[in-house]
Amino acid sequence: MANKVTMQQIADQLGLSKFAVSKALSGKSGVSAETREKIVSVATQLGYFANKQIKASASKRSEEAVSGGLPASGKETVIVLVPNVRNQTRESSYWGRIIDGIAAELQEREVGMVLVTEQFRDSFSNLINPNGVKGIIGVGFVSSQLLLEIRNLGIPFILVDHEDPLIPSDTLFMNNMECVRRVTNYLIGCGHRKLQFVGNIRYARSFADRWSGFRSMLEEHGLEQEQDRSLLGLTGEGRAEMLPDELEGALGRMKEQHTLPTAMVCANDLIAMRVIGILGQLGIAVPEQCSVTGFDNIEEAAHAVPALSTVHVDKEALGRRATEMLLRRVAHISEPQEKVLLSGEFILRDSTVYPLLQTALS
């Protein structure tokens, strides 16, 4: 059996105090975000977390009243954690539907649910009674500091549409790479030879995987992979992660330089609908001069003008599957962690050119 990695070893490796390492690894405040990241990174490399498994007793917690914190119901309780960052809200047409699926599955199983949607000024552990929590489902981005706190509390948790590179956990995603490969392959089959990916490829793991799927399909078809880099790193607010002014400037420049692609594969529907709107302002007809695809199939996609071709994400199914995964983890606490990928369906609408027009594009 390998020797246990100690906090002192991590501190010695970084030239820091054991006190600073302890604060960082417990998820407590008192160290900078940069220092915390370094500490967690070195701890992961040395195998610190590999020797700190969640205790099996976590699945046997009793429901007790919480004094000054989140209430515990008479039923077992699952916390659904949706920190209010990147517009991850209950009202979102994307995140909200995932939460609907979680709530429906928990209700059918007669398990209570507490929705936590705010950032925490104080320690998360001060808000809850760990003995009253069956498990936690993190929906969307959850900070490493908060995940460290949850792990140290010994509460089973899974993440939906997010993966922390330093803190291992069960994760649930759409099969982002394969879905975008299918979209890109369809566009190439329609005759498109100049395609552009649009979206911040560093925004989230799901966006990075969609970018990887796009690139791999271009490579398989032997097509030029040169991309306008400005469209791969746009930043802004919300799931679109894109400033409209930046996007308008990039597309306007491409039009002036005659480098506009005939197809744009967007990282999600919000980005795709912005692209369609700006192309219209620039006098570029969609799909006659440029096809546009999205991802997620949010409610607005079918009502866009033109209606958006996109990958359908069964958001309620994601929520239900996440619940199943959490309850399985609670029952089998020591089994290997899982990364589950759900398939999506490519829905063809009016924003893409159909095969009968491929001769005109060749």
UniProtKB/TrEMBL annotation:
Key words, A-Z: DNA-binding, Repressor, Transcription, Transcription regulation
PROSITE patterns (UniProt xref): HTH_LACI_2 (PS50932)
InterPro entries: HTH_LacI, LacI/GalR-like_sensor, Lambda_DNA-bd_dom_sf, Peripla_BP_I
All residue ranges annotated as the HTH lacI-type domain in the record: 5-59
A single MF term (Gene Ontology): DNA-binding transcription factor activity
Signal peptide: none
UniProt keyword Lipid metabolism present: no
Official protein name in the record: LacI family transcriptional regulator
